[in-house]
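User: Mind token order:
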Amino acid sequence: MKRKKRRILLVDGYNLIGAHQELNRESRISLEEPRTKLLAALSEYHAVSKYEIICVFDAYEVKSQESIIGFYGITVVYTKEKETADEFIERFVHDNYHPHLCEISVVTSDLTEQNSIFALGAYRISSREMWLTLSKAEKNISRKIEAINEKVPRQKLNIGEDVHAKLEKWRRRRF
């Protein structure tokens, strides 16, 4: 029996936020809202892609342990103190990449990081390209929802207003 190849999408979260004009602007005020919006977009993409998605945020200047949480089907990693997202991603690719068992794609626009993970065997996706992919996926999801809604009947019976009024009177027992 052939084992199914794991497909992992590793995302440098702050790099992706920095590549989006609106989220980048919001991140100057607070990081919480842009992170939540990014994670929501990634979770929607996860629903239609065949990727296991891991989004990494570095906590380089924050005194903390590494923490891993789930967010609607995706894994969110906050790195430990003095570890950058790039370092975590490189370690993850080194530890998990296998040409026959695991395909890893890394989303970052950091050229040094792209070269490092490419040398380790992972694919690279620029942040700009990922935003285009996320936008396209969102449009496809919206089209599918609209198509489903068009097929759903508005009422259970297609009846005229006069029949509807008569039935309503009977229902209220006003003959």
